[in-house]
Amino acid sequence: MPIRVYNTLTRTKEDFRTISPGKVGIYLCGPTVYKEAHIGHMVGPVIFDTIKRYLAYNRFEVTWVVNITDVDDKLIAQSRVRGIPMSQIATEMTMDYCANLMALGVDQITHMPKATEHIDDIITFIRNLIERDYAYESEGDVFFAVGKDSEYGKLSNRRPEEQAGMGGDAASKKRAPGDFALWKEAKPNEPSWPSPWGNGRPGWHIECSAMSHKILGNSFDIHGGGLDLIFPHHENEVAQSECCHNLPMARYWMHNGLLRSGEAGKVGGRATSEANSQSNIEPTTQKMSRSEGAGGLRGLIERLGGERIRFYLLRTHYRSTIVFSEERVAEASGALEKFYLFFERYQRVTKQPFYHASGQISGMAPRFRDHQQSYTGNSSLLTEVDRLRGDFLRKMDDDFNTGAAMSDLFQLLTALNRFADENNLEDEQTSNTALGDFRTGVETLRELAYLLGLFIKPPVRASEEPEGDLADSLVRLLINLRNEARRNKNFDTADQIRDSLTDMGIILEDAQGTTRWRSE
RNA sequence: GGCGGCGUAGCCAAGUGGUAAGGCGGAAGUCUGCAAAACUUCUAUGCGUCGGUUCAAUUCCGACCGCCGCCUCCA
Fold it and tell me: Is A115 within 8 Å of A67 (Cβ atoms)?
C-alpha cells in the first residue's frame, strides 16, 4: 500500500510518487515576521513536521523548506509605528517564531530562507518572466499579467474574470485589475534594493517562487500551507513558477485547515464587519488575544506545555478546522497524563528512565518502517503490538491521518499496562521473557509516538510545582507519618493527611508496600 | 453571487456501500483498610432534515436547514 496524499490541485487523494526516487522536496509557506506568532501559525509546521518524520521513516530523504518573509507592507508599517528598522523587527519575530516551533517539537526543518537574502534570485526570476512576456513594468512596478496564463485559476478553481477585484491601490498602473505585483517601487524612506526597474522591493508571492526554485528546483514534490493561502498566494505562485519554467511547480499541493478560537471567528484572521455587526462578538484580533491569554503564544506554551498543544493539534485531521481554546487543550490533555504515568511505571519496571538523554531514538528503537522487528513467539502481547503497529501505519499512509492513528497508540498503552498488571512486572522477580516482551512493546510505542513528535523529551510541566528536594523531603515526612498511622489502623489520621495533601495538589499512591507521590 | 469545507453520543474526534475507532467525562466491577493508579465491563438501533438509487446508506445522488472559510497581500 503506497502512501496516499490529498492534492488540492486535483481535489482527490493520490498515490504518493516522488519526482526523484527516494527523495522528497517540501516547501511550506512560513510566516511574514511582522508580529509575534499566534497559535494558528503553528498548525502547518506541526503537521508538516509530522509528515516529514513519517516520510523519513519510510526511507525518503526529505528536504523541508520553510520560508521567512521579512520584507512586506505590514513589516514596513510596523517599522514606522515602532520607530525601529524593519530588519530588527524581522529578526526579533523570526526568533520568536523559531522559539515557538522548538517548544512544539518542530525540529525537522532543513532550510529557512529569508526573502531579503534572495533579492538577486527574485530579480532574476522577475526578469525571466518579463522576457517571456508574462510580466510587464509600469512606472517602477512590475506586474504579472494574469491574462497571459491560460491555466490561471486552476488551483483555487476560479475563473480569473470572476475573482478580479478592483485592483487595489496600484490599479491605475495595472493593465488588468487581476494582475498582481512582482516588484514594488520604493516610496521615500522605505527599505529598498536596486533593480533593473529602479529601487524597490519584492511583492508578496514572488519570494516563494524564487526561493523554492533556488532550493528545491523547477519542480518539487509537496507544496504546503494553510487553506487560506490557496488564493491568491498559491494561485499566484503556481502561475509565476510555471510560466517561468514551463514545468509543474509542485506535484502535490497540501493545505491544512485553519484554527478557530473557542468563542467565534478565526484566530488571527481579519475581523469582518458583517460578523461583528450581527452580534456582540468582539473583533477577531481581540478574540485571539483572549484565547491565548496573557503573554500570547509564549505564555500559552508556558502554561500548557508544548507537547499538550502538539498533541491537541494532531488529534484532529490536518485538513479539518480545529477549534482551539485553552480549556479544550487542558481537557484533552488528561489523555496525555496516562502516558506520562506509564513512563514512570516503565522506569519502575526496567530501572531505566523512559526518556533517553540525547532525545534520540536511534539505537533504542528502529527508525525505519522496514526494520525487521521480531514480534515472533507465542506472546499474545507482541502479537497485539504487531497488529496495532500495522494499524497505526496504515492510517498514517492514508493522507497522514494522525487523529485516527492515535487510537492505536492508546490501545497500545492499554495493552502494555494490562501486560504489566498480569505479569506483576513491578515485582522484583519477573521473568526475563516477560520483561523482554514488555520492552519490545514499549520501544514500539516509542517508535510510533516519535512519528507524531511525541514523548521524545520529558514534558515541560505546565504549572508551577512543588518540585525540589525540600518539597520532596516534606512530603516524604508526611507520608511516613501517615504510614505510621496506617500501621496502627489509625485510618482517620491517615486519610486526613492524604486529603490535606490532595487539597494541595499532591496525589498519594500506595502500591507494592511503598507510597509514591506526584503532583496533579 | 462564485468557489470550497463542515454538521457522528454530554464533550472532542476517526471512519466505512453491509450496520459505528479512540480520547475526555460518567456508571459498575477487580485491586486497596479506604483511596489513587492500572485493568475489566457498560455509556450513539444511531451518524443535521427530507427524498432518491440499492438486496443493503451514516457512507452514493438530489433538495433543504444550520455553521464556517476564501474571493488581492491572513498560516
Answer: yes
